[in-house]
Amino acid sequence: MVLPILGNVTRWSSDYESLKRALRIHAAITSFIATAIGANRNGERGANERALITDDLSDDDWSILG
C-alpha cells in the first residue's frame, strides 16, 4: 500500500516528495475526494469537510503537476 507523504518544514524536499507521491497515487486521491464530496452532498459529512469541494484538483491542475 502506498500512502501520501506529508510536508515537513525541516526538510526542503518534503513538498517535492509529497507532490511526487500524490502523482503516483492520483487515482486513489481523486476517488477519495469524489467519495467525500458525494457524501457531503448527501448531508453525511460535517461542515468542515466542505473544504474538499473547493480544494479538489481539476484535470488541468493534475496535468500541470505531472
Walkthrough of the structure:
The protein is mostly helical and 66 residues long. The chain has one domain. It is built from four helices and no strands. It has helices at residues 14-24, 26-41, 51-55, 59-65. The radius of gyration is 14 Å and the shape is globular.
The chain-level mean pLDDT equals: 79
The coarse silhouette is globular
Order of helices and strands: HHHH
* Quaternary organisation: single chain
Strand content range:
under 5%
Report the C-alpha radius of gyration, rounded: 14 Å
Structural class: mainly alpha
Briefly say what this structure is.
This protein has 66 residues and is mostly helical.
Characteristics:
66 residues, mainly alpha, 4 helices, 59% helix
